[in-house]
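pinging the channel bc i need a second pair of eyes. not urgent but kinda urgent?? the chain im working w is below, pasted from the shared doc
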Amino acid sequence: MTTPSHFSRQPQALQAPDDADRRAFIKTAGASAAALGLLSVSSTSAYASSSEPALPEGADNFYRSDKVSLQKVSFQNQYGMQVVGNLFLPKAAAARSMPALVVGHPMGAVKEQSANLYATKMAEQGFAALSIDLPFWGESEGKARNAVAPDLYAEAFSAAVDFLIAHERVAAARIGGIGICGSGGFIISAAKIDPRLRAIATVSMYDMGAVTRNGYGKSQTLVQRKAKLAKAAELRNAEYRSGQPIFQNYLPVVLPKDADPVTAMYHSFYRTPRGMAIPAGYTLEQTQNRTLASEVKFMNFYPFNDIETISPRPLLFIAGDQAHSKEFSEDAYQRAAEPKELHWVPGANHVDLYDRANLIPWNKLTAFFNQHLAA
């Protein structure tokens, strides 16, 4: 029997999803470009300067700080895959033993989108902060690229803890983490079985399992879910025959005139200089998008089951009170046991908390981790 070749890194086809697919599947998602293995925004012609929208007040995804040092690091997970991250250390910290944080990027993004910003800001507050690329994304290993594998995403957080515990500047018993968007669910999944994560904060959290099964606000019926699974199976058959992945065009480079508000919100970050980050070897079209045959694996992902077992380790859920995704933070908060806190950011939508430094509650995050990762 002839076996098709391995999936290539380059998508061979893009299929535009219908509006329901787009609303259900498009999700989320910083630091700098060339020095971090990315193409700079100026190197792509996807956006002409005349079409660039004005940045929202406080948007600072590619923030740099002269108060912290940056080191590219890599380490293996339990499956022998290389996970790549950026380690930010405070320059002013004289102590050799400091608390540390793992920071995970939004689903479909890379560490240069939102995660680096959070890691930099927390390093300024005295934490060793490690932003990571999840497996199959950015600079981390994994084939096929952009694959959906929630168990491996959660494992990446534990692998990052392995690395931090072995670092000479880190206090091994004082490690926590921040999960942004989809990574909020992934770090909760990790924390349920990894007690070395002593305190966990989520920001604009998505439950990728719930949204894939049910849509926003449980708007997707069982019949629609099964139809999506049937479509995914059909595409998987085609992928096997051709040996090439069929990527869905969840987030087009050019915003459709009839785009729904959620798509427009994500487009304003991922497809503009505000948050655009293109890993080496990729095109802009290849970022964010993934195959439906892979995406439906989220239907077996239940990160909030047994979330109460994380107690007595503390949980902080941060979300904008205008975010379409706030239902997931509310659900997690209701299920979690004490100590827990749900913090609303007035006027903020989902993507605002990716990069709008004037809205992100840095003081709340700092106080939370100072309290719960104290010596």
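so The chain has a mean pLDDT of 88. and The two ends are 61 Å apart (CA to CA). — does that match what u expected or am i reading it wrong
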